[in-house]
Amino acid sequence: MNRVYLIGNSGSKADLRYTPNQLPVLGLSLAVRKAYKKEDGSWLESTNWIRIQTFGKLAEKVSPLIDKGTPLMVEGEISVREWTSKEGEKKTSFEVIAKQIHILERKRKPEPEVFPPNTEAFPNRGQIPLEPMIPFEPMNDSDIPF
């Protein structure tokens, strides 16, 4: 079975082209992050760039939705291409032929709320002593009424 699922971010705007027979072909690079723990306990993060292609109606449908940094989930199959370079070297490349592409919602950082100090409403702000906090006391199972 040849099936792969990838989650990552588009490395650029999707590139939609057409074959001479007018078949839509979409190409993009997907940045997939990987994190692992080193022997010393520190974490190391790396990024793998995966070439993605899709064809037909899917290519036309998702093309206008994909910009640089767009979070995507790609479902497809691995394709291997082999060729000989001009210098006579055998070359191999791997890519994913996407059967489905899902646009994921981008994580949004909440905007910090900045309020100017209202000295008119609270002229002594910061000068009022706070009540001492009540210390936390753990409950026993016998204290729970059900």
Give a quick summary of the entry.
By secondary structure, the protein is mainly β.
Question: Can you tell me about this structure?
Answer:
The chain has 146 residues and is mainly β. It has a domain of 90 residues: OB fold (Dihydrolipoamide Acetyltransferase, E2P) (Beta Barrel). 5% of the residues lie in helices and 45% in strands. It is built from one helix and six strands; from the N terminus they run E-E-E-E-H-E-E. It has a five-stranded mixed β-barrel with strand order 1-3-4-6-5. A hairpin with a 5-residue loop joins strand 5 and strand 6. The longest helix is centred in the middle third of the chain and has 7 residues. It is extended and about 75 Å long. The protein starts with a strand and ends in a 43-residue tail after the last strand. The relative contact order is 0.19.
Sheet/helix structural class: mainly beta
CATH homologous superfamily grouping of the domain at 4-34 and 45-103: Nucleic acid-binding proteins
- The total count of helices amounts to 1
Low-pLDDT runs of 5+ residues are: none
Major β-sheet, in short? 5 strands, mixed, barrel
- CATH architectural designation of the domain at 4-34 and 45-103: Beta Barrel
Mean pLDDT: 82
The CATH topology of the domain at 4-34 and 45-103 is OB fold (Dihydrolipoamide Acetyltransferase, E2P)
Global geometry: extended
Series of H and E elements = EEEEHEE
The strand count comes to 6
Range of helix content: under 10%
**C-alpha termini separation:** 52 Å
Round the Cα radius of gyration to an integer and report it: 27 Å
CATH class of the domain at 4-34 and 45-103: Mainly Beta
Strand fraction band?
over 45%
> Biggest sheet, strands in spatial order?
1-3-4-6-5
